[in-house]
Design a protein that fits this description.
274 residues, Arc Repressor Mutant, subunit A, 11 helices, 7 strands, Homeodomain-like_sf, DNA-binding, two-component regulatory system
Amino acid sequence: MTEILIVDDELGIRNILSEILVESGYRVATAANANEARAKVAERHYDLVLLDIWMPDTDGLALLREWKYGGLLNFPVIIMSGHGSLDHAQRAMDDGAVDFIEKPISLKRLLSAIQLGLVKWHEQQRQAAEEPPPEKRTRGRRRSMQQIQRLPAYEMPDYGLVLDFNRPFRDQLMDFERAYFKTVLNHLNHSMAELARHAGMERTHLYRKVRSLGINVEEMREEARRTAPTPPAGGSYAKPTRPVLAEIETSDENSIDNPTGSTLDRYPLNNTIK
């Protein structure tokens, strides 16, 4: 019997999908977040995984890449999203997903995606088995790659970012996005409204983006409160004194009706006005 793992942080979605798939003859297991999904996959093999993008700890695309580059992607994955975009769909397919479906999911679309996903996965495995061994196929490519000089990498510890041109573009892009949002949030007193205006993004999309990058704004605010300097004992910080402004003299000889030049012209440029 085909066994399917459903990974979604919404209990209602897990229950509905489980009921549909069980009635359709599948065996079903569920996981509420990425950590549970990792544990489930480590314990047993699943014939297919239905993976949601937007989850609180690690987003589905990041988990898919983790499985792929960790050599653990030995099962087909169908990505699900209620707020997906063409970019998300393309990234999912590039990272090894067999399909991308949007919520709400119809019964027909769900069952069709699972059947086609299983067929597509088995065809990919068959083609991979018929290809020559990777060592022979990439021997010449490896020699040419060894002749290419390693690209530069720049560390920016103040922003928690390493700009490494040797890394895959999407991995580097995610690190830059994370550093960008965290840096701007720190400068804007952790205001999501100000961040949305600064970044030129809709607030709803911004919330999803920040969450998908693993940024916890509440934790950042709490950390800022903990590390803020405490006021001196017995009172609060003294208010800064108002700066003394230069006094501009006016007279009948130097007025709007009879201008003769600014009083400031009397002061040398290299002296401070007092």
